[in-house]
């Protein structure tokens, strides 16, 4: 009798790997990998550093003050429509935000009971893993 891969049908086992959060209902602590991924997302993908970091008079980012909040580096292209005049301090996590609320904001664009951010802040739709990595990185900058 021919048996696929030499296995009996009753011997085929399916292994399902679930994230720890599904098994325990709680988040696991951020790892160094999460912080590194968040660093990459903040600096190279979402580009948070471009608006939330002060600049010198010639436009060079002041990296010793990274993500400490800054005047908006560009003027509004919208004429009279709303535009942010400054980007807030986000190192550590933005003031008054819990990690879960901040992650929700990065995933949905919904700031909850806070004012909606003005352009040029994009309404991000990050995955939960990416949003938590960004939060882990920002928290590492306390």
**Total DSSP helices:** 5
Report the uncertain regions: 10-25
Name the CATH architecture.
Answer: Orthogonal Bundle
How much helix is in the residues? 25-40%
The CATH class turns out to be Mainly Alpha
Could you tell me the number of beta strands?
A: 2
What gap, in angstroms, lies between the N and C termini?
66 Å
Q: Biggest sheet: strands, sense, closure?
A: 2 strands, antiparallel
In the CATH scheme, what's the topology name? Answer: Cytochrome Bc1 Complex, Chain D, domain 2
Overall geometry: globular
Give me the secondary-structure category. mainly alpha
Strand content: under 5%
Order of helices and strands: HHHEEHH
Radius of gyration: 21 Å
How much is the average pLDDT?
Answer: 83
Strand arrangement within the widest β-sheet reads 1-2
Q: How many structural domains?
A: 1
